[in-house]
Amino acid sequence: MKSFRSKRGPFKEQPFFTDDELESICVDGLAKCSLFPSAPQPIRIERLVEKRFKVTVEPMDLGDGILGLTKFGPGGVVGIYVSEALDAERTQIAQRRVRSTIAHEAGHGLLHAHLFLLDNNAPLFGDFSDPGAPKVLCRGEGPDESRRQYDGEWWEFQANAAMGHLLMPRMLIEAAVRPFLVSAGNLGGKEIDPLRYDSAVRTLAETFDVSRAVVSIRLEAYYPVKASRQLML
C-alpha cells in the first residue's frame, strides 16, 4: 500500500490500494476469521464484523439518505450500524442492500481505521459536526449504485471496492461463472457467453445473495462486456 498527501477529505494522508491489494486484504480478512468458503456461496458478512472487529451490527435511526455508519475509537472500529428503516424492510432487495452496506462499512474498518490513529484530531468522514466521535457516514447513493459519482470521495470509492471483494471474492467468482464461459480469440481466452450474460448475472446474484448491480460491477472487472453487447443493453 502506498500513501499520498490527500487533496480531498478529512485526513492529510490518502492511502492507495491496487485491486490486487484490496483483494488480498479482504480475502485475508475472511480467511483469518474462517469465513472464506470452499465453494461459491453467500459470505457471512455480519459474522465477519463480529469476529474481526468484535462488534455486532446494529440497526440505528441514521436519518434520511444514510445507509450505514462506522464508529472508530483508539483501538479501531467500535461500532457498525445500518439504517433502521432499511433493516426493517424484509424484501429481498432491501436485505441484500443491508448486506452490501455492512460489507461497505467493513471495508472502512479494514482500510481506514489506521487513519484515525495517525491523526487523532482529524474531523469526520461525511459529518464534521462532532469531532469527538470519529465515524464514517455512508449515504444512500452508495453500495449498489454502479454509476455513482464519488466527486473526490476516495474513502467511499475504496470502501465500495472492498465491499465487492468481500461479498464476491475473485476466486469464487471464477468458480461460479465457469459454466457460462465460452472461448474467446485464438489464445485460449474466455468470456461470458453474450447470449447467457443475463442468466449469469441472475445466477451469481442468487449464489452470493447480492444485488444484480453488485454482480454486474464485479463481472465487468474481470469479464468486460464487449462493445457489441453494450449496444444491446
Distance between the termini: 37 Å
> How many domains in all?
2
Q: What is the residue-mean pLDDT, rounded to a whole number?
A: 83
How much strand content do the residues show? 15-25%
Radius of gyration based on Cα positions: 18 Å
- Tell me roughly what share of residues is in helical segments: 40-55%
Structural class: alpha+beta
Question: How would you describe this structure to a colleague?
Answer:
With 233 residues, the chain is α+β, with helices and mostly antiparallel strands. It is 45% helix and 17% strand. The chain is built from nine helices and eight strands. It has a four-stranded mixed β-sheet. Strand 7 and strand 8 form a beta hairpin. The chain is globular, with a radius of gyration of 18 Å. Residues 121-134, 141-147 and 227-233 have low confidence and may be disordered.
